[in-house]
Design brief:
The chain has 179 residues and is mostly beta strands. It has two domains: 2-123, TolB, C-terminal domain (Neuraminidase); 134-178, Laminin (Ribbon), CATH 2.10.25. The chain has strands spanning 2-6, 12-16, 24-27, 34-40, 45-50, 55-60, 67-71, 78-84, 87-92, 97-102, 109-114, 151-154, 161-164. The protein starts with a strand and ends in a 15-residue tail after the last strand. It comes from Balearica regulorum gibbericeps. Keywords: Lipoprotein, Receptor. This is Low-density lipoprotein receptor-related protein 1B.
Length: 179
């Protein structure tokens, strides 16, 4: 799945398959400007920052179990969001500090460091990297990903795929080759 935020005409947090199909709103109320988003892959939770409401909130992958992690001046001007173990990590764009927020106890907020210029944050740790299993977009014996001549996108699960073409090409009737 692909998770993303949108604050165009109607602010929302959404999810879809990797090929863009099955687009679903998972949050569409009491939300104004969702900017940063992070996933808890183990427990299947979606965290987001709303810079208009000065809040960090969470829902499960289906949009249920919504609650506010932290709200108010302490989390004003946040950009970027990462989750690791019991903590959320974010960047305060006003004073360029990295904040650590306990996702289970919102009174536990610490400023870890200041940076010259930062807008995003990521946590890289071996335990957060999911094991890769065989999937529908693996390269075939002819060097084509998933048998697609241009682009292979995973679909509703790791065994299904959709072929797409680069700009200026159209997908052939076989659903794999581009012309």
């Amino acid at each position: 799945k692909l998770f993303f935020t949108d604050y165009g005409n109607a602010a929302k947090v959404e999810r879809c398959d990797m090929d863009g199909m099955n687009r679903t709103w998972i949050v569409d109320s009491k939300i104004e400007q969702p900017t940063a988003l992070a996933l808890d892959l183990v427990n299947k939770y979606v965290y987001w920052v709303d810079i208009y409401l000065d809040s960090v909130e969470v829902v499960d992958y289906q949009g249920r179990k919504r609650h506010t992690i932290i709200k108010g001046r302490q989390v004003r001007h946040l950009c970027g969001l990462a989750v690791f173990e019991n903590y959320l990590y974010t960047v305060n764009s006003d004073n360029l500090s990295i904040l650590q927020v306990n996702r289970y106890n919102s009174t536990d907020v610490q400023s870890l460091a200041r940076l010259a210029n930062a807008k995003e944050i990521r946590v890289y740790q071996k335990r957060t990297q999911t094991a890769v299993r065989s999937h529908a977009c693996e390269v075939d014996p002819y060097g084509m990903p998933g048998g697609c001549s241009h682009i292979c996108l995973l679909s509703s699960n790791y065994k299904a795929r959709t072929c797409r073409c680069r700009t200026g090409f159209i997908l052939g009737s076989d659903g794999r080759s581009c012309k």
